[in-house]
Amino acid sequence: MRYLTEPGPEGRVDGERSGMTQLAVRRARSGLARVPALAVLQYYLVGYRRTWRGGVLSSFLLPTLTVLGFGVGVGALIDQGVGGVSYLEWIVGGLLASTALQVAITESSWPVYSSLQWTKIYFAQFAAPLRVADILAGQLAFVLFRVLASATAFLVVTGLLGALRSPWAVLALPVAALLGLAVAAPTFAYAATASSDSWLALLFRFAVIPMTLFAGVFFPVESLPVGLRWLAYVTPLWHAVDLSRAATLGVPPVWSVTGHLLYLAAWVVGGWLLARRALGRKLVV
């Protein structure tokens, strides 16, 4: 009866493998437990692994068409360029920052509203051993990933088109990341408090589009009237545009680098506090 009470060699091997698998799962879970926000990020990355192919074409096609349309098409009408450089080279920094802005707001508007109103994903996450801060941090970490991926694709395309004047252009990537967090956090708070998805369309119509048009992306802010100029200075996009343009052109920014970074960081902190409060009001009963 030994064969009924003692496992054979194959049984022992299978048991050892099962034990090793369970040990690996426990170790992975314990690691995620130490940083719960990583579990939230992992959730979004698993979903993105199944959908990333749909965005690859737009990640490279959109910047190519934008650069060719504005930089080459409009630039052909501006013989003298801007500030001593061609319009194509001048506009790259602004387009990169505006791309980061649009990706960050897109990923933190409808997905947030959907997770609260339609799919109820945040409620399921909160029912697990996750805090409000963990859910928020994981969501913003995924937004940061999307912003960096899009900004990197844009930088590669413009580099291949010969539109980058300086190797310092790589510094535009951390600027794009900081801008992404600066606009994603308050957008998260806005989407979490929206009573209808119509409010999200209004956000793009009355905030994203005006910022993109008047924050120095397509023409120097100094050409605006004084009143509109100061409205542009208030937006986080202009600060990122100035830093990105300085990096891609290899010149000092118009304003202080420290001042730009502190202003964008203030938007991140303020947006985080607002988003955490808004999400907490929805989840904590």
From TrEMBL:
<comment type="similarity">
    <text>Belongs to the ABC-2 integral membrane protein family.</text>
</comment>
<keyword id="KW-0046">Antibiotic resistance</keyword>
<dbReference type="InterPro" id="IPR000412">
    <property type="entry name" value="ABC_2_transport"/>
</dbReference>
<keyword id="KW-1133">Transmembrane helix</keyword>
<dbReference type="Pfam" id="PF01061">
    <property type="entry name" value="ABC2_membrane"/>
</dbReference>
<keyword id="KW-0813">Transport</keyword>
<feature type="transmembrane region" description="Helical">
    <location>
        <begin position="199"/>
        <end position="221"/>
    </location>
</feature>
<dbReference type="InterPro" id="IPR013525">
    <property type="entry name" value="ABC2_TM"/>
</dbReference>
<keyword id="KW-1003">Cell membrane</keyword>
<dbReference type="InterPro" id="IPR047817">
    <property type="entry name" value="ABC2_TM_bact-type"/>
</dbReference>
<feature type="transmembrane region" description="Helical">
    <location>
        <begin position="168"/>
        <end position="192"/>
    </location>
</feature>
<keyword id="KW-0472">Membrane</keyword>
<feature type="transmembrane region" description="Helical">
    <location>
        <begin position="60"/>
        <end position="78"/>
    </location>
</feature>
<feature type="domain" description="ABC transmembrane type-2">
    <location>
        <begin position="54"/>
        <end position="282"/>
    </location>
</feature>
<dbReference type="InterPro" id="IPR051784">
    <property type="entry name" value="Nod_factor_ABC_transporter"/>
</dbReference>
<keyword id="KW-0812">Transmembrane</keyword>
<feature type="transmembrane region" description="Helical">
    <location>
        <begin position="90"/>
        <end position="113"/>
    </location>
</feature>
<protein>
    <recommendedName>
        <fullName>Transport permease protein</fullName>
    </recommendedName>
</protein>
<feature type="transmembrane region" description="Helical">
    <location>
        <begin position="140"/>
        <end position="162"/>
    </location>
</feature>
<feature type="transmembrane region" description="Helical">
    <location>
        <begin position="254"/>
        <end position="275"/>
    </location>
</feature>
